[in-house]
Structures are given as C-alpha cells and as structure tokens.
Write a structure and sequence with these properties.
This protein is mainly alpha-helical. It is flat and about 60 Å long. It folds into 2 domains: 44 residues; 48 residues, no CATH class. It contains 4 helices and no strands.
Amino acid sequence: MTNESHIHHPNYVKVWAALVGSMSHVRYVLLFAAFGVAAIKAYLVAKNFMHVTVEKRFVPYLLVLCLLFVVILFAGAAPDVMKHSGLHWNKDSAKQAVQSGMGAAPKHE
C-alpha cells in the first residue's frame, strides 16, 4: 500500500498557466513558446539521432558555429525585411501592399 504523504502531485496552476499562456494572443509569449519548443526539439534530435554527444570533440563546436552564422545572417537581413523605411531608403511597394491588404481585410463590428 502506498502512503498518501509520498504521492507527488504536480502544481496544476503552473501547468494551466503555461498551457493558457501559450494560447494567448500575446505576441512575445507565443514567440517564446514556439522558439522554446523548437529549440528543445532541435536539441533532442541532435543529441539522440545525430549522436553529437558521442562524436569527436569538435562536432558540437561546429554546430554552435553554424548556429552563430544563422544568427548573424538573421541580424543582417532582418532590418531590411522587417521595416518599410530606413535612414536613406523607403520600400514604397511594401507600404502599398500592406495598405491595400488592410483595406481588403474584413472589418469586425
């Protein structure tokens, strides 16, 4: 027979908050949850299926270097892709596309 004092119950409020928080319309919570899940899945794939932990010592460093290059590529391209204007430039076609898309969107009453 089990003793009632030894049974561990999870904190249901924390589990509920994590589940509801990831379904909310808060942009940063959604991004954090999505990239957090993706990072954990990538780690598990690299560890279990790519056998990074049992390979030679330079392979994990090579993976970190590749990840660093991805971050540098994103940092270099993101300002041009995510903005419609800058110090000496404007993307008028992108502004027009956004405005025409917003005009065609159904209005909620």
